[in-house]
Amino acid sequence: MIDPASGLPPLTWLRAFEESARHLSFTRAANELGLTQSAVSQHVRNLEAYLGRDLFVRKTRMLELTEDGANYLPSIREAFALIASGTRAFTGSPSGEIVRVQCNMAFSVFWLTPRLHRLYARYPWLVLDIVTPIWDPERHASQAAMEIRFGRPEEMPESAERLTTDNFFPVCTPDYQNGNVNLETAILFDCAGTTGTWEAWCQAGGLKFNRSGHINLASTYVISVNAALNNAGMAMAHDSLVSDLLEKGQLVRPFEAEVKLAEGYYLFPPSPHAMTPAREAFLNWLREETESGIETVL
Length: 298
Hints:
Elements: H1 11-23, H2 26-33, H3 37-51, E1 56-58, E2 63-65, H4 67-91, E3 99-103, H5 105-112, H6 116-122, E4 128-131, H7 138-141, E5 146-151, E6 161-162, E7 167-171, E8 188-191, H8 198-204, E9 216-218, H9 221-229, E10 234-238, H10 239-248, E11 259-260, E12 264-268, H11 277-293
Parallel strand pairs: 3-4, 3-5, 8-9, 8-10
Antiparallel strand pairs: 1-2, 5-12, 6-12, 7-10, 7-11
Helix pairs in contact: 1-2, 1-3, 1-4, 2-3, 5-10
């Protein structure tokens, strides 16, 4: 209800507007707020009716801020920031916790840590405890606020959110075998227990695979990809792990062929009743990074 004396619209309307402006999508805003898309849309319409101005231009697949919406947004964000600052000053903590994230080791090393500077630029108060079990991921999962796990769709519960959809392909350093890579003589590395193997890649490309029994195995991509980085041979890798390394020129793809990877990285998010400001901050950032940098979705 609106309090006529205060002249302020309900906080739920303002939150719906701010999140919708952040994502330029009622659907994504609804996911952030734990509401339905129709509820968020109605909150924004109520706010527009209260203000007597349109805040968004509604297009088929996205939203666009109107001039009034763009002018109104900074004051709303400033107000929310002031509330958050006042709460931190009152409680002595912005979050009340250190967020433990149980995360696949390769994803932690090759995707997460290279992007943490962007996380802390946005949330400098956030503190993480990143745990990376290789085997038996269930052992400590109950102690973590959330988890990022690598696996096939059929291995994941319905509550898991897929973060990535990748292709797999060989990688090596630019000067491996003096830049003239020979598949018959190269040292090869596979990550054990995955479907993205040298044999699968060769079969998909119609190549005769005659290296069976002569491929080095690693229990994690951290080992196999690092072997390639140190010029020990070629590793089979996938987009989300090596995109940064390829962009920097530390690794190259000696062959153009790529195959869709059955596995992906999945998010096991906290239940809604267990959400905290710190957990919500990390999840917001993670979702935005995966949506812009890989293919989504945690």
